[in-house]
Amino acid sequence: MKRRQPIRVSDAINRVMHYAQPNEIETVQIEACDDRTLAEDIVATHAIPPFPKSPYDGYAFKAMDTKGASQNKHVTFEVIEHIPAGKVGTKQVQTGQAVRIMTGAPIPKGTDCVAMFEICQSDQQYGKEWMTIKREMAPGDNVMAQGSETKEGTKLLHKGTYINPGVKAILATFGYQEVPVAKRPVVGLITTGTELLQVGDELKPGKIRNSNGPMIASQLKRAGAKVVELGSLTDEFTTSYQAVEKGLQRVDMLITTGGVSVGDYDLMPAIYEKLGAKTLFNKVAMRPGSVTTVAVRGKQLLFGLSGNPSACYVGFELFVRPTIRAALYEETPHPQKIKAYLKTDFPKANPFTRFVRSTISYAHGNVYIEPSGIDKSAVVTSLAKANAFMVLPGGTRGFQKGQLVDALLFQTEQGQRDIWQDVSYE
Ligand SMILES: Nc1nc2c(c(=O)[nH]1)N[C@H]1C(S)=C(S)[C@@H](COP(=O)(O)OP(=O)(O)OC[C@H]3O[C@@H](n4cnc5c(N)ncnc54)[C@H](O)[C@@H]3O)O[C@H]1N2
Ligand code: MOO
Ligand SMILES: [Mg+2]
Q1: Comparing C-alpha atoms, which of 283, 290, 330 is closest to residue 22?
Q2: Is the pLDDT confidence value at 424 over 80?
Q3: What is the pTM of this model?
Q4: Would you tell me which CATH number, out of the four given (1.10.10.60, 2.170.190.11, 1.10.260.40, 1.10.3720.10), belongs to the domain 58-133?
Q5: Where are the domains of the chain?
Q6: Signal peptide location in the record (predicted)?
Q7: Which ligand number lies closest to the CA of residue 288?
Q8: DSSP code for 32
Q9: Which is nearest to 366 in space by CA: 425, 407, 311?
Q10: For the residues 43-60, what does the mean pLDDT come to?
Q11: CA 292 / ligand 1 centre spacing (Å)
């Protein structure tokens, strides 16, 4: 048997990212654009606000008319019109006149300030409406100038921006009933293993339920992909080869779980060979996920993730997720890397870079990290509480409580351009 040559994690990621490609554009109705990413830059097509407007309910008039006004010397205005939000004043306001104006209404012609109701006195006399004020106002007081928030032509959002409620509000402001978004990459998912039962099955001797299938489907959705479930295969070459071959015709990329190591029934390497796919790597200097294998056929990436649940999970977040984020035009497709204080000792040596499934917590302005369960590749129970990977470089001999370590946050929207720049992991 030919010994596999492990490559560095950073090299493995770079090899994969070489094949990552931006996806096509599609438009969706604004109601359906949540969680998508913008396929175009968004530029202000008009000023905000589009007209000078009142931020308060009150009266608009000429500020100079209040010159000399004080507690002892009030000034009285004749109120000539009412302007609710949504209406435009019809009169040119003259000296000594005021307009009753509501929040959001356009500032009427001839006025340059607004006084809130709370500092004005309203009155009806001689069949007319009056307003009295006992303080001076300056031009521009309580006027939201046209374009004071944003000028027309300002670039507000970059292509690749994740659409959150605030982004949606901007899109609505500029009339995007239809929103240009990156098409979700279509990713096929196959689980392999003769031992696998489906979720609803009774447990039988020698068998286990398929947890990688539902887990990866969920990771795919979280990353922004469209999942095509291509079933669960027994470890039999011909049917497995055919399922992979057929699956590839329907998808942008394909994920398989299991069958990538060196066992008698680990069929993926032979399937890739028969497909004529080029293997980018089949061994990575990392734990877990060392057997993660990635191949390409034409433009299609084939991710052979490990069958071991923790290795499968880590392999997805490190190698698959960035390609999906890149397909969605994200400029920072990798998980954000931060420093955190270890909350417990981690005495295990790290012959290879270790990605420990961990929980991040915050207290007193500090970030803390601790393993979220047993640190073993075959373990499934450590994943539920994991919101980060603690990254312990290869060649180290354990870490102590209180030490600062690197952490990759894979559950946040915010990403990073590159996670390997400032440190090299062996
Ligand atoms: N002689 C060697 N043996 C192994 C090596 C090695 O280098 N030399 N590598 C070990 C490492 S590291 C890992 S990780 C595993 C990888 O195994 P495979 O990716 O080939 O996966 P399988 O053999 O199919 O299964 C491994 C394990 O995972 C369970 N499994 C598989 N699929 C699922 C699923 N959908 N849901 C839940 N659990 C699943 C399966 O039952 C096995 O227990 O190989 C080591 N061996
Ligand atoms: O690929 Mo394995 O996950 O290193 O245990
Ligand atoms: Mg195996």
Answers
A1: 330
A2: no
A3: 0.93
A4: 2.170.190.11
A5: 9-27+183-327, 31-45+155-181, 58-133, 334-416
A6: none
A7: 2
A8: G
A9: 407
A10: 98
A11: 10
- Interface confidence, given as ipTM, is 0.98
Beta pairing, strands 186-192 & 226-233: parallel
Amino acid 421: pLDDT: 72
417-424 long-range contacts, CB within 8 A, separation 24+: 417/331, 417/332, 417/334, 418/334, 419/334, 419/335, 419/337, 420/9, 420/10, 420/13, 423/393, 424/8, 424/10
Torsion of CA 381, 384, 388, 391, to 10 degrees: 10
58 has pLDDT over 80: yes
Structure confidence at residue 413 (pLDDT): 82
- Name the CATH code of domain 334-416 (choices 2.60.40.10, 3.40.50.150, 3.40.50.80, 2.40.340.10): 2.40.340.10
Distance 412 CA to ligand 2 centre (A): 25
CATH class of 9-27+183-327: alpha beta
**Ligand 1 — pocket residues by CB below 6 A?**
191, 193, 195-196, 208, 210-213, 257-263, 266, 288, 290-291, 306-309, 311, 377-378
Cα first-last separation, the chain: 25
Q: What is the best residue among 306, 318, 353, 377 to mutate for testing ligand 1's pocket, by most ligand atoms within 8 Å of CB? A: 306
